[in-house]
Amino acid sequence: MGVIKLINDNSDIKELTKIFNESFSDYVYPLSVTESSLTQKIQGDSVSLEYSIGLFSEDTNQLEGFILHGIDNLEKPKRLYNSATGVIPNARGKSVERCYNTMIPYFIEKGIESIILEVVTTNERASKVYERCGFKIISTINSYKGLINKDSLKPYLFKNCEDQVDSGGSMKIKKLDSINDEVIEFLSPKNKNYPMMIPTWSNSIKAITKEFDLGFNKCWIVTSKINNDKEVIVGFLSVNDQTFRIRQLFVSPDYRNQNIATNLIHTMALEFNENTTFNFGIDSKFDNTINFFTKRLGFVYLLSVYEKLLNLKKE
Ligand SMILES: CC(C)(COP(=O)(O)OP(=O)(O)OC[C@H]1O[C@@H](n2cnc3c(N)ncnc32)[C@H](O)[C@@H]1OP(=O)(O)O)[C@@H](O)C(=O)NCCC(=O)NCCS
């Protein structure tokens, strides 16, 4: 049946990489990691091995399965993010259910109130397992992918990256060398009177900042001068430069339809090889964003994931 315990220092990145690849050998699409890419995922998702579950062989004590959990706060985490789950084929059979049933009382005791995850919609096996554990769908995210044809974007570009706009201000694109409070405030949905797409865990500003500080994320902002005086942020783009996942693309509603997103995308593309295939996930409720990626950029549909939540807090 296997022994279930926290991973802590019971495993290392070499073993985790091996078990990850064995577990994902029959996944819904080809997926493999290297020690380096798995380390980046672990760091970007704030995975804590003190909150991650390992399934170990009773006979050999070797790792046979894992649930890696990111934490939302170092001191007092309240939410866990299931960053990756896998069990090698020989050890399967209600293993995820057993892992969660065994460890959830411990997580509740530690103050954890919820666990969130994403599962590819066509991964019926995993979806079924999570449903049995009590996870409920909270949103559907569609991913799109494509090359960026810089020539086709030329008609929409700001002149000299500084273009007069109707508001009387001027637009500037800047590559960030740090993610400061002004950027964080710009992306915060708090006190905003318009709907904002709530990014999934790996695309949150917290994860972006982590990736950025570790050197595998690039960010740009567009600023505009208001009253010919103060410069304010009106657009933001972030991309993971290893996976080419566009983490966030956001333009203030007051500044939409002025090609700000196009200019951000074009500036980003200048830093990558022309054969780079980028991808981006969009909450299915945000039609405008879907139209931008499919119509303006020509991206095509890749796959969808369900975001699922398990509430551990007693109502
Ligand atoms: C997902 C995974 C961890 C589940 O392992 P497990 O908890 O031991 O799951 P089980 O083997 O008990 O299978 C769960 C259920 O799915 C069913 N199932 C198996 N293959 C299936 C398939 N191709 N389609 C639909 N259901 C399937 C099983 O019959 C079982 O249901 P049942 O108990 O009603 O018979 C494991 O399959 C795995 O590592 N898969 C590859 C990586 C992956 O998909 N990870 C999740 C990413 S979100």
Automatic annotation (TrEMBL):
It comes from the Eukaryota. Residues 2-162, 184-315 form the N-acetyltransferase domain. Coiled coil: none annotated. InterPro entries: Acyl_CoA_acyltransferase, GNAT_dom. GO terms for molecular function: acyltransferase activity, transferring groups other than amino-acyl groups. Gene3D superfamilies: 3.40.630.30. This is N-acetyltransferase domain-containing protein. The lineage of its organism: Eukaryota, Amoebozoa, Evosea, Eumycetozoa, Dictyostelia.
